Amino acid sequence: MVNPTIQRRRLGLALKRAREGAGKTQDEAAAVIDAAASKISRVELGQSGIKLTDLNLLLDLYGVRGDDAEPLRDLARAGRQRGRWSTYRNAVPDWFRQYLDLEGDASEIRWYQPEVIPGVLQVEPYIRAMNAIAHPRPPADEVDRQVAVRMERQSILRQDDGPDLSFILSESAL
Question: What is the pLDDT of residue 69?
Fold first, then answer.
């Protein structure tokens, strides 16, 4: 499955390099697509996608043409696809869905967690127990969504080509 977060980040880095290579500022790029400089910043950071018409205008401004432009168009198309975590929109905020996409594509995960078991390692009874002591206590349907997300996250632990994992936990977490 195409990971739109990763594709947007790759496109953003390529666009930033092209803009800087062309000696253009974010303000100049924004003026070409009739947008705020913050839009260019969000695209370059991979935080938002870009329409192909706007992308083509930027590529012209940056002098990116022909065979060099088509892979960037492909990245833009892939970045607009729905990601694996889009079904959890009501349970996971946008910023955390981006984190989950990055976690799913990571080749290595190192985690230091002194007080609680990391979410990717939590089992259902643990998740429910942690929510039972939370203040304010979340509604049951929200807890069910959190359980579903954490169980889905654990799929990276079962992948043959999954990331190398390293966890440091304190005794109190256990």
Answer: 94
Give the chain's domains with CATH numbers: 4-79 (1.10.260.40), 87-169 (no CATH)
- Quick check: 156 and 103 in contact, CB under 8 A? yes
End-to-end CA distance of the chain: 35
Burial class of residue 108 (count of CB atoms within 10 Å of its CB; 0-12, 13-18, 19+):
exposed
Which tens digits make up the pLDDT trace of 56-100? 999 999 999 989 999 999 889 887 776 667 677 777 787 787 788
What's the CA gap between 170 and 117, in Å, rounded? 9
